[in-house]
Please model this.
Amino acid sequence: MKKKQIYMIFVGLSLVIIALGLFLLRKNLVPEKSVQVVSPADFVESKRHALDLLGGLVNRGFRVRDEVWEISLRPKKMELLQLTLFAGNQYWFAAAASVPAEKLKLALYDNEGNPVALDLWKDDHTIPGARMAGGIVATRSGNYYVGVELLEEDGKEAVPTSQGVPASLVYVYQ
Amino acid sequence: MVMKSKTVQLLMFFLLVGTWSLYGRGGDLTERQMKEAVYLDGISVPSPGEIFAAINKVSRPNWAMFSQGGVAPITTNRAQLALAVGLLVTNGFIAVEAQDGQQVKNIGRDIMALSKALGVSQNILSRGNNLIEFADHSEWDALRQELEATENEVKATMVEQQDRNLVTLTSAGAWLRGVDVAAQIVVNNYSSEGAALLDEPVLARHLAADLEELSPKLKNDPLVVQVRDTLMEIAAILEKQDHHFRQEVLVEIQEKASHVIQAIESSSTPNHAS
Model:
């Protein structure tokens, strides 16, 4: 067997192993580390911060949904919530997470899982923790997914994966 | 040698394609992510106020035409009571759109009565007083907020009392009445934009699937079966239309919703799940 053949087989096998690894990760067959339980009291602060973020919009006639989505966030794992939006309505979503969270990603997806662009308000870091808000005028009625993810701030230490960070999401509509 | 090299290249190509398809295109959600998305009754099911706000943007409905109270059935059937609470909440929103304070107060009293019959009224007494106060002062936005909060409080008490089963029924009742009214409004003043607001087959299927998960006693209650079948039928009709709904399709949907609402409002339903 010539060197080139051995090299090609090696590359092929490596790709098989990489693909299998990615497949296992995707199927969550790799056990996750245990997550600390977040109690309902831990959400009080993040809920208040998320609602505060939308306070100005409520004063401008937006109506706030009564229910809050309480999320235990872990780094690099996007949590998704199913929603129904109506064409013509304007929506603003606000997410807030307590310390040690530094940065949040907020995203919206349509019923097929395609990203939908949001007008984003970025965190001004005037309070501890992380906040993010995004708005949209829905162009199509139906099913959507809103996603919240804990990101690492550049150069800062990541939140330990074993620890759930309490976060809340609220939304308003008009 | 050349053939073997081509085989390896092909293998590599399929591996790359396989990995790409497993991970999905950049930024998109995978089937698995969508399937595992959280569904929270109190937020995933839209408030009646949301669809009514959208309807107000495409037409000018005479909300007073649809404002009605007096749908509290006389029954001990808990499934029926839970469904009727949902109907009343949506009727409350309609009365707010019609700016009919007296009707809001009547509906508030009916919600309290049904909640009492269900044994879940202890936490919402103050809500009832708020509804009356806001109605007296024509505080319509506060009333919308209070109606939704009342519904959520009733559902939270159901969960506390190990009656989680009833929550889905209340949501289903509220959604069906919303569809009933929205379809009537759009049929009366048809526009494709208005019709598209009823494009909620995913939610209809989700509510029907949740009813399928109820305890055997509740699941087999004739009224619950009727509600579940109606949700499935509405979902199937919506899915067939490819996002474009003709007037006659909306009439069909409205008739189905209206038919099951009449059964919920009826006081002669058998008490299978009492």
Notes: Chain B touches chain A through 56 residues (CB under 8 Å). The mean pLDDT of chain B is 88.
